[in-house]
Amino acid sequence: MRITRKAAFAAVAATSVFALAACSSGGGGSDEETDDAGINTDTSITIAWNQPFYSANGTSITGNATANNIITYMLNSEFNYYDPELNVVQNESFGTYEKISDDPLQVKYTYADTAKWSDGTPAGPADLLLEWAAQSGKFNNVEAEYDDEGNITNQDALDAGVYFDAADPSVALIEETPEIDGKSITMTYTKPFADWETAIDQNLPAHIVAQRALGIEDAEEATDALVAAIQDNTVEDLSKIAKVWSTDWNYASMPSDEDLLVTSGAYNITEFEQDQFITLTANENFEGDNKAVFNKVTVRWNGDPMGQAQALQNGEVDLINPQATADFKTAVEAMDGIEVASGPEGTYEHVDLQFTNGGPFDPATYGGDAEKAKKVRQAFLKTIPREQIIENLIKPLDPEAEIRNSYTQVPGSPMYDAIVEANGQAETYATDIPGATALLAEAGVPAVSVRLLFDPANTRRQNEYELIKASAAQAGFDVQPYQVQTDWGTDLSNATSFYDAALFGWQSTSTAVTASDATYRTAATNNYYGYSNPEVDALFDELQTATEPDDQERILTEIETKIVDDAFSVTIFQFPGVTAWNPEKIGNVSKLTIAPTIFYGFWEWTAGDAAAE
């Protein structure tokens, strides 16, 4: 699939307030109520997370964030999921898939009779066809253009054209329109693809998208019209469909239209207060295998780890996994009756730079002088105090922590050491204030202002910002925090003209070898910065068909070397994880190192001792 923009991305204020109004976990007595679906309606759980949900379309460029996808993981079913050993497991109660041909590569998906949307409409091939149309890029014929203030300047062209807010290089390999046959749909790839099993999956309800876009009331008729629009490339209809798909499921509080709350999984959204909490209630009509254990799951938001710890101790939340600090770890380990688990996570911290926003790292700022802009980028990256960040903020949690020096590999993975030895990042971007100062002098720009985007509600990232600001100032950089206009995750993709560098974390959502394609390829889903290198794109093309580990390692090494040479990004550290929970309220917590982390296996949770009394 792809690497996801991390919901736990971290940054600012240790003084953030945790809104806890009347939403503690419920416990059941011996007279527990059970509805006809076998759901214990007395059970509930409250979980803390550090960034609010803001989009139910997690495969769009705007909505592709862990903050969103941990919620949609409980709302919607897919064809597969990962088990605790990170093996891909088919969700046969939703559907099955099989590779039916190697040359050409063809994959057939078949929906089960139990695959249904919560409004009673069967899930089916049209849903997957819509996702292909959105992610393949085949139908897009216009892109948004912005002025210096971030306002769209070509709205008429957007309204007349087709623009799906998505771009997935793996789905783009399916150039032919997929063929529908009853409950099945077959995808044909233009070439072999190593990660075909995780390339595409279910997302939004096609019938709702079509009803909203085409003004057709009947669900079956609307679905048929959507399929016809895609098969016939009807621009007028596709324009409307693309706009609805891209925008209508972006909401940060309870939408007034219940159609936007239709799901295919174990839960439905029943309450949603902006910047406070979201409550999911078990879907009584769900027929799949992975059913809800708790009738209600409430997720409350707070970026302050100590605020989460206090809420856990007070019984206001029952499960937490913040971006931990040493104080946080000490606090939860001292709590009576609280279970604590530590270990590395599948997320890494990094800084990316803007290439096309008219800022200090953009060649256009220097009359198109690419070398001058590159020297400024190199200088800034040399000021990132990676070792100091780890010493001050990470080693108190993990004494063995080291700088991560790979863009694509997790420390300890088979390819990591060889790629790090060859890519040059450790040497090129070791903290070097004299070297940075010299580069700025060579570029003729001794003083540079940099607007840094990071989550303004995350303690650890605020601390990182302060260290970066102080270090960069020694070389002539004035680093100021970008003032978030909406949600910082939304601004990451939509306000690219207004920040020059971004500090956050990428979290893996799959084990696919091509996962980094969506981050470093030109104009791909996670590439918000205008970074483009045709040689990198060509190497990713080669990687897509590479099945031998030696070939994959060689290609990834070349890719990483070019990223270093282009001065696009630096990696900093692998996240140390600390999870804490109240066993009287929840049991069988099993966290994955990739998304959805602590939300994994919600169908295997158990109501704790207090709920069973």
TrEMBL record:
Listed A to Z, the keywords are: Signal
Q: Which InterPro entries match?
A: Peptide/Ni-bd, SBP_5, SBP_5_dom
Annotated signal sequence is 1-21
**Is this entry keyworded Endoplasmic reticulum?**
no
Q: Which GO terms describe its cellular component?
A: ATP-binding cassette (ABC) transporter complex; periplasmic space
Q: Which GO terms describe its biological process?
A: peptide transport
Q: Could you cite one Gene Ontology molecular function of this protein?
A: peptide transmembrane transporter activity
* Superkingdom of the organism of origin: Bacteria
Mind telling me what this protein is named?
A: Peptide ABC transporter substrate-binding protein
Which organism is this entry from? Cellulomonas xylanilytica
